[in-house]
Amino acid sequence: MTEKEKMLSGTLYNPANKELTREREVARKLCRQFNQSTETEKKLRVKILKELFQTENSSIWIEPSFKCDYGYNIKFGHKVFLNFDCVILDTCEVSLGDNVMIGPGVHIYTAQHPINPIERATWQETAAPVSIRDNVWLGGNTTICPGINIGEGSVIGAASVVTKDIPPGVVAAGNPCRVIRKVDEK
User: Fold this and answer.
1) Of these residues, 78, 113, 164, 181, which one is catalytic?
2) What value does the mean pLDDT of the chain take?
3) Which end of the chain is more exposed for a tag (fewer CB within 10 A), N or C?
4) Is the pTM of this model over 0.90?
């Protein structure tokens, strides 16, 4: 099994592997080009994002600056908006549904390091996918931890740290993030 196959399967892998290092360099170059583009270069931005994410989906709107590890592990629904300064560490799949709104400074992580210090000293890591369903809004400066699923129609309050799955149709917030109420409750 290659290091990339290990990474995508969620088993321990070496992120310093040459193939993975090269792929991160490509993603960083594309992110840098995107982040240095101007607000009037919309066609250039769309072209860069299509290459970065390896998609033909043009209904993605991202405000610079944006950073990710690989890009190709991020799957977008239609009409997805990422505000300024978002970071997605996509060592595993990150799925963003339709009509997802992501506030400024949101970080989404799939990479995980071993808890055991002896294992961690090997500099190997694992990854767990993140799924954000349709019609979700993530408030600014929210952190989504590896392996999290956020249910359809939910709202995550600003500055939350999401460490457990969030069911559909709720407002959740805090550190750690917890359900406050249903979306349709006052």
Assistant:
1) 113
2) 97
3) C
4) yes
